[in-house]
Design a protein that fits this description.
The complex is a heterodimer of chains A (112) and B (116). Chain A has strands spanning 5-7, 10-13, 19-24, 31-38, 42-50, 53-57, 64-68, 74-78, 87-94, 102-103, 107-111. With 112 residues, chain A is an all-beta fold. The chains are: A mainly beta (112), B mainly beta (116).
């Protein structure tokens, strides 16, 4: 069974640019969660999508947004990139019936 | 609001020695509890989970954890550490009100170093 896949693995951007990160869930998982792991800040919850709807949002500005597609894959968009957006962005997916969240290997985003 | 504390930022143990990583949580009731491990440059791998029932749970790679309600703790243990266990370990809590379909709150992690 394929795990959670994220793309790309690495990205280098400059301040003010926009970026899109992608996540494909484990087959049968309908929920997608995005987390940010920044140096010194730990793992912070960003967004949760389920059945195509945004269910919950962490304490991040509106320039962090995303969506979930009918096949349950998801995109995370970050606009107007700032230096502090440099981090590892992790996607996790989960299903119903108390299936725990499983994580992808992340996308490392570096802002110059 | 729920929170997780991992009081040890960094732990060093010798290969073959026993290991205990501490985790304390703050939550109004009994949360769902998880331990994840992260190797350098990789994502998080689920080691074990506690939802209810037996307070001693077994996980992968020989790890176990014990839920102690009176101490609000969920400590991770391994009787004999292998060099390949060197990684960062995260304790996390989730809300049973929404099942595992809710955000996880993570501790700040404990980095484990294993000496040969």
């Amino acid at each position: 069974e394929a795990g959670v896949t994220q793309s790309p693995t690495h990205l280098i951007k400059t301040r003010g640019q926009q970026v899109t990160l992608r996540c494909s869930p484990i087959s049968g998982h309908t929920s997608v969660y995005w987390y940010q792991q920044a140096l010194g800040l730990g793992l912070q919850f960003l967004l949760w999508y389920d059945e195509g709807e945004e269910r919950n949002r962490g304490n991040f500005p509106p320039r962090f947004s995303g969506r979930q597609f009918p096949n349950y894959s998801s995109e995370l968009n970050v606009n107007a990139l700032e230096l502090e957006d440099s981090a590892l962005y992790l996607c996790a997916t989960g299903g119903r019936n108390n299936q725990p969240q499983h994580f992808g290997d992340g996308t490392r985003l570096s802002i110059l | 609001a729920q929170s997780v504390t991992q009081p040890d930022i960094h732990i060093t143990v010798s290969e073959g020695a026993s290991l205990e990583l501490r985790c304390n949580y703050s939550y109004g009731a009994t949360p769902y509890l998880f331990w994840y491990v992260q190797s350098p440059g990789q994502g998080l791998q689920l080691l074990l989970k506690y939802f209810s029932g037996d307070t001693l749970v077994q996980g992968i790679k020989g790890f176990e954890a014990e839920f102690k309600r009176s101490q609000s703790s969920f400590n991770l243990r391994k009787p004999s550490v292998h060099w390949s266990d060197a990684a960062e370990y995260f304790c996390a809590v989730g809300s049973p009100n929404t099942g595992t379909a809710s955000k996880l709150t993570f501790g700040t992690g404990t980095r484990l170093q294993v000496t040969l």
